[in-house]
Amino acid sequence: MKKLLALLVVAVAVFVLLQVSGRDETISGYAPSGVTWSLEALGGTAYPARATISFPEEGRIIGDAPCNGYSATQSAPYPWFEAGPIAATRRACPELAEEAAFFEALARVTLAEVAGEVLILSGEDGFEMVFYARR
Q1: β pairing state of 118-122 and 36-42
Q2: How far apart are the first and last CA of the chain?
Q3: pLDDT in tens, 18-64
Q4: Which domains can be identified in the chain, with CATH numbers?
Q5: Model confidence, pTM
Q6: Residues with Cβ < 8 Å from 74, sequence gap 6 or more?
Q7: Mean local confidence (pLDDT), 127-131
Q8: CA 39 from chain center: how many Å?
Q9: Cα–Cα distance between 89 and 63 in angstroms, integer?
Q10: What is the pLDDT of residue 16?
């Protein structure tokens, strides 16, 4: 009986470990699925253009900056955040300065917090990017 109980405990432990190890530990595993986040404030000031970010799958960021679509990697475990190299299309528009500020901010932030309909990306110096969910 003791051997059967020990075997059952080991089997349950292995099952739990396999389930936990397969979990997405990046922000995409914590942010609601299928949500596009719209930037509302950058560095404490209302953001004057349209920019979005989404986390469609583990390790991947996609979105629209004011002029261009972009993608990047993000493999840091939540709550840390580190956008990898940003690949963007190369269209010009009147909001290129706002786009540059957006991409610079994405490269600067190091922490992520998802709280309901709000996503806050922040830096160690208190700098914040505040996004709201759009469904």
Answers
A1: unpaired
A2: 54
A3: 344 467 899 988 888 899 999 999 999 999 999 999 999 999 999 99
A4: 24-134 (2.40.128.270)
A5: 0.81
A6: 26, 27, 28, 55, 59, 60, 61, 81, 82, 83, 84
A7: 98
A8: 13
A9: 11
A10: 39
